[in-house]
């Protein structure tokens, strides 16, 4: 079975403010078979800088509605090590959601590369904020 490349996106929530708009966007990408969620991990710090990491399934729907309903295909792929590494750069009184996902849309492209006996030499992702800056 050919799979698409995997990305890990870190979504920050300064001030631990949650609008509930992220989960529906992720769910739509899953429903459209654009991505497949491998794992989700929620990391937060309080005002004193105390770090906590939770599996998204343990959050409860009141904190992150919609995220707890998402199926993960590799629960545990993101672990305490990932949480600790992120927490080193996470400001006090803020949170981050780590989302590991497979780019399902790219599987046919990967298969074509393999069938052509070609190789991907490098892959570069330009953040949306950088693209917006260039276009402005």
Keywords:
single chain; 136 residues; alpha+beta; 4-stranded antiparallel sheet; 4 helices; 4 strands; 26% helix; globular
Helix percentage range = 25-40%
Characterize the largest beta sheet: strand count, sense, and whether it forms a barrel.
Answer: 4 strands, antiparallel
Strand fraction band?
15-25%
**Structural class based on helices, strands and sheet pairing:** alpha+beta
How many domains make up the coordinates?
1
Q: How many DSSP E strands?
A: 4
Query: Unreliable runs, pLDDT <50, ≥5 residues?
Result: none
Strand order of the largest sheet: 1-4-2-3
Number of helices: 4
Average pLDDT level = 88
Report how far apart the termini are.
41 Å
Spell out the helices and strands N to C. Answer: EHEEHEHH
Shape: globular
Radius of gyration: 17 Å
Give an account of the 3D structure:
The protein is α+β, with helices and mostly antiparallel strands and 136 residues long. The chain has one domain. The chain is built from 4 helices and 4 strands. The protein has helices at residues 22-31, 80-87, 107-115, 128-135; strands at 6-14, 36-45, 51-55, 94-102. It has a 4-stranded antiparallel beta sheet with strand order 1-4-2-3, with helices on one face. A hairpin with a 5-residue loop joins strand 2 (36-45) and strand 3. It starts with 5 loop residues before the first strand and ends with a helix. The model has no long low-confidence stretch (mean pLDDT 88).
């Amino acid at each position: 079975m050919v799979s698409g490349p995997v990305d890990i996106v870190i979504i920050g929530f300064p001030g631990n403010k949650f609008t509930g708009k992220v989960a529906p966007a992720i769910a739509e990408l899953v429903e459209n078979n654009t991505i497949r969620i491998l794992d989700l991990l929620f990391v937060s710090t309080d005002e004193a800088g105390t770090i906590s990491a939770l599996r998204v399934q343990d959050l409860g729907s009141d904190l992150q509605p919609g995220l707890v309903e998402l199926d993960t295909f590799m629960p545990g792929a993101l672990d305490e090590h990932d949480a600790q590494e992120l927490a080193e750069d996470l400001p006090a009184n803020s949170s981050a959601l780590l989302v590991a996902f497979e780019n399902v849309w790219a599987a046919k492209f990967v298969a074509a590369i393999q069938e052509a006996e070609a190789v991907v030499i490098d892959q570069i992702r330009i953040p949306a904020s950088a693209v917006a800056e260039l276009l402005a």
